[in-house]
Specification:
Shape: extended
Strand content: under 5%
Radius of gyration: 28 Å
Distance between the termini: 16 Å
Number of strands: 0
Largest sheet: none
Order of helices and strands: HHHHHH
Number of helices: 6
Length: 223
């Protein structure tokens, strides 16, 4: 292992200290956890402020004004008007750019939401009940998967169809099966969320094993 620089050693100590502070929440709310929480929020706010400046303000406003592209004065004026929110007497000025931002964002989200949440979802749900492989032969595995997808989709839709009483063979049985389908889907989603959190925990454990502990061994060996 190559000798670590002083800034690397300090960074490892800070990272390990903040990690332990976050894990201390397992023992209850305490000042160490609050300190790590405030540091995380403050660093995140500063980081995104820098990203916003170098990624948006500088290329879209500052550079364009230097290039005499006066159309950039419009977003600059709207951004300055947002700062009037800091005073209660002039906060009414900030409503104009806020109305513009909300209207523009709503218009864009209608298009994106329609495409991502409706059109693509419908396209992904249209599956052939008899699947074939690339050579033209019958594909049993994809056929079974498609039947499960279509069956789960139909029973889930039946459960949410409240215009007809959930009684009888079709709507009664379909609604009951739809509940199981929804529970399986929610359980899989919850399991995915738990596994994502566990992967973060594993990442911190690997940090202590692969980065922090070798640094301690190096310092002891050097001492």
């Amino acid at each position: 292992m190559e000798p670590l620089l002083t800034n690397e050693i300090v960074g490892l100590w800070i990272a390990s200290f903040l990690t332990v502070c976050v894990f201390s929440f397992l023992l209850g709310d305490n000042p160490f956890y609050k300190f790590a929480e405030h540091v995380y929020v403050g660093v995140s706010a500063g980081y995104w402020m820098c990203v916003g400046y170098w990624g948006t303000i500088k290329p879209e406003i500052v550079d364009k004004l230097y290039a005499r592209d006066w159309i950039a004065l419009i977003p600059l004026a709207l951004g300055v008007m947002l700062l009037f929110q800091l005073s209660s007497k002039t906060s009414w000025v900030s409503r104009w750019p806020l109305c513009f931002l909300v209207g523009m964002y709503a218009g864009l989200q209608i298009v994106y939401t329609m495409d991502a949440m409706i059109i693509e979802q419908v396209q992904a749900s249209i599956k052939p009940l008899i699947a074939y492989n690339t050579t033209g032969g019958f594909d049993l595995w994809n056929t079974v998967i498609n039947w499960i997808l279509v069956f789960g989709l139909l029973t889930g839709m039946i459960y949410f169809y409240f215009s007809v009483p959930h009684k009888g063979l079709v709507f009664g049985t379909g609604a009951r099966v739809g509940i199981w389908v929804l529970m399986i889907a929610l359980g899989a989603s919850f399991g995915y969320t738990v596994m994502a959190r566990i992967s973060l925990l594993i990442g911190r454990m690997l940090f202590f094993r692969d980065d922090f502990w070798p640094m301690i061994q190096q310092l002891w060996g050097g001492a």
